[in-house]
Amino acid sequence: HTPMYFFLSHLAFSDISLSSVTVPKMLMNMQTRQQSISYVGCISQLYFFMLFGGIDNFLLAVMAYDRYVAICHPLHYTTIMREGLCLLLVAGSWNLSCGHALLHTLLMVRLSFCADNAITHYFCDLAALVKLSCSDTFLNELVIFTEGGMIFFLCFGIILGSYIRIGTIILRVPSTKRLLKAFSTCGSHLFVVSLYYGTAAGVYFFSSSWDSKDIIASVMYTVVTPMLNPFIYSLRN
């Protein structure tokens, strides 16, 4: 019933769901050797992938704030991270992620797809579908860069700000005991954040075209990271 485990339960559900959106279809395609998906199936996969991917983003930011309060305000932790605030943060994460996924899905539905409908990916990714369209994709690209960028940098900014603040607090009176305690409190979360954002940034920010390296990086944050999260947090316990 502590905040960290309340957030972890939602992260675990989101991770299972994120992998379930892409992995079963990928395995079926590998087994049957028929690499195809219907239009409705593709749009549905896009929506749920963006929904659970967004939830992961928001929850990692919320958990970073939780770790910040635990280390920087330990005596006020129970009063700050009360049950009502935890519920509000999780409900806000779900609502924002639903709105984010719905916006991009509705913008995708208005596009037309003409001759070549081969997606150079193992699932219906937003960037790959936008490149595939033969309609004017200016509005889609504008919303991806503005709204998508705002959400990404908001979450990443909260995580970065929380850890900068934690670092300054620890370094004021440096001691081995404090460093070990901070690593024990934040190590698991920091490792998961590095794995998730590192691979996602490699795919969406440092790549101009889809190739095998991008697909491998996508597998890292859509399959490997969700699979590793339970091991990382269990080993910490």
Automatic annotation (TrEMBL):
It is found in: Cell membrane. The keyword Membrane applies. One of its GO terms (cellular component) is plasma membrane. SUPFAM superfamilies: Family A G protein-coupled receptor-like. It holds the Pfam family 7tm_4. GO terms for molecular function: G protein-coupled receptor activity; olfactory receptor activity. The keyword Transcription regulation does not apply. Its main location: membrane. The chain crosses the membrane at residues 43-65, 85-103, 150-171, 183-203, 215-235. Residues 1-233 form the G-protein coupled receptors family 1 profile domain. Coiled coil: none annotated. Keywords: Cell membrane, G-protein coupled receptor, Membrane, Olfaction, Receptor, Sensory transduction, Transducer, Transmembrane, Transmembrane helix. It is a multi-pass membrane protein. Belongs to the G-protein coupled receptor 1 family. Putative odorant or sperm cell receptor. This is Olfactory receptor.
